[in-house]
Amino acid sequence: MATTVVAPGSFAQAQSDLGFSYVFAEEQIRQELNEKVSVLGMMPLIGDPVGTGTDILRITRYGGVGFAEQLTAMNTETEAIVPSGWTTAFDTATIARYGIGKEETYQGTLLNRADAVNLDLLVAMVPASVEKTLRVLMLTSATSITGVVGTSGTAWTMDDEVNLITNFNETDGFEGAVQTWRHSEQFSDLAASLRNEPAYQEPGVMSSIQGLKPAGGAFSFLGMENHASNDVQASGGDHIGAAFAPGAIGWVRASTLPLQGRVRDPSRAMFLPDIGLVIEWDSTANVANAKFTANAWFGTALLSATLFPQYRIRSVND
Amino acid sequence: MPIPSHAQESPYQIEPANLAEVQSENVLQASPTPVFHLVHYPDNWEIGLVDEGGQKVAYWLPEMQAVPVVPGVNMCRTLRKDEPKEAAYTGQLAWFAQRGQIAVPMDAIVGKTDCYIARVACQHPRTKRVGKRHFDCWSRPKPTKVGKSVKFWRDELAANAWRLELVRRGWVRPDGTTGRLPDADPDVIAEKIDRAEYHLARKEAETGLPERAYENEVKARQALLEQHTGAKVPTFEGVTAAVPVVDYSTALIQALASRVKAGEEPDAVLATFPDLGPAIVAAVHAAKPAPKPASKGKGKGE
What is the pTM of this model? Predict the structure, then answer.
C-alpha cells in the first residue's frame, strides 16, 4: 500500500516504507559481565586415572620421622635401642562426568547475521565453562575443611582475620604461604571492620582498603594471597570461604585422547586432553538441527590438613 | 517444618526435599544447587541463642557445615549403571568418617524435624537452566536480582533449637538406626574463651580511637566475652543408651552388594572403600551370586 508523503517530506513519513526500525551498532557483539577467575593455575594436578582400571586415585603420605622425630637419650652405654615406627596415610580423589551442549536449527545458521551468537561462537566458550566448573568444584571441596574461623550469622571482622592468621602461624611446620577464597561480601565486611582499627585509618591506607577494586574487591592484607569469587558456597545463612596453603585442593582429570578412535567424526571433534574435554558435532537432518556436545571428566579433592594447613572462613550472608 | 517467625511470606513455593513435584510456576531466579549433608567436626563449637520460655539463652552448639553432594568432589562420584542413588555419596560418607567428621543423615529425625533440607524450583536467569535449589529448612529465599547472590530469611532460633536437640537427643532414622554427636571438649571451649579475652584486651589497649568508638568496641567485646563464659554446655541426655556414633552399614552394603550382583568381584568392589568393618566385608562377599551348577550332558552309549 502506497504512502502519501505530504510536503515537506520528513523522516517520520519516510521511515516506515524506506527506512529501518533500527540498525546494529558497528561494533562486535558484547558479552555480559561475569566472573572470569580461573583456578587452573592455582590447583595442582594430582593425576589421571586413564588406563588404570579405577576411577579413584590415592595420594599417599608419611610422617613421624625426620624433623618430626627426635633421638632418644639412652640410659647406659649398652642399653638396647628399640626401633621406632612411623605413620602412613592417604587421601583419595575421583573423577566425575560433566557435560554441556548447544543446538541451532539449519535455518538459524543460514539466516543469522555473521555477527550473531551461533554455534561457532558458543563452542569457543566451552573451555571457559570448564574453568568456571572447576572453580565451583574447588570451592565446594573447601566446604569439607574441618577447621573454621568466624561465627555463624555474624559479619567477618578484624578480630576474625587475626584469629585466622594466628591459627596458621601457630601450626607446626607452616611454610608461610596462604591463599584465601572469599565471597566479595566477606571482603566488604572486612573493609568495614577496618574502619575502626586505628592502624588502618591513615588516608592512603583507608583509600586503598575502601576504594574501588576489580575482581570482587579482594585486597592484599596481612600477607595472604586473597581472591574473591561469588561462587563461594553458602551454608545456613553464611558464606563459606576458605584459607589454605597452596596445594590443599588439587584436581584430577581423565585425558580424552583415547577417545580419538571412538567418536563418530574424529575429524571434527575437538580434544582438549589437558582439561579432560572432548567436543563433538552432530546433526539431525529430518528436523534440520545441528548441535555440539561437550563431555568432560574431572574432579577435585581436599588433601589432609597434616600436609596443607587449611580453615574455612565463615561469616554471614546478608 | 519450622517457618521463619520474623520474615514476610516468601513469594516462592517452599517444599520439603522429599516431595515429588513442585506445583508453582513462580521460580527463583538462581542456579540450581545440589543436596547436602550437615557435617560436624568435634572441635567446632560456637555460641547460639535458644528460646527458652521467651528468654534467649546462650548455649555452646555444634557448628554444622553444609557439604554439597557434587560428583567428582571429595569422593562423590558419577553413578554407574543400575546403581542406587545413595552410591553416589557413600564414598564421601566413608571419607568423612576417616577424617573424624560426623555427617547427620539427610533423613535424620531430630526432635520434630524429619528432614533438614528444603528445596525450591529455580531457573538460572541467563542460561535458563531449570532445577531445584536446596537449602536448610530454617531458611526462605528472598526474591533475587540478576547478578546478585541469593539471600535468605532465616529462623536462627529454630536452627539453634535443632542443634541443641541434636546434641541432647541425637537422631533416629526411618530404618531405626540412631546416632549422636560427641559432647563438647572442655579444652576446645576454654580455647575459644581465651580468644574472646584476647580480643577484649586488644581493643582495650587501642586508646587511639575516638572516645565513643572506643566505648562501643570495648562494650561489644565485653558482651561477647560474657556470652562465651556464661553459655551453657549441653550434654547428651538421650533415653537410648549406648548408641553407635554413626551407622551407614545398611546403605553401604546395599550399594556394594548391587555391584557384586552385577558381576564385579567382591575384592575389587571392597578395594574401592578401604578400612571397612568385618561385618560389611562379610556382607559384600555374601552377595556374590552362587555359581550355576554345571549341566549334565547326555552320556554316550550308556
Answer: 0.79
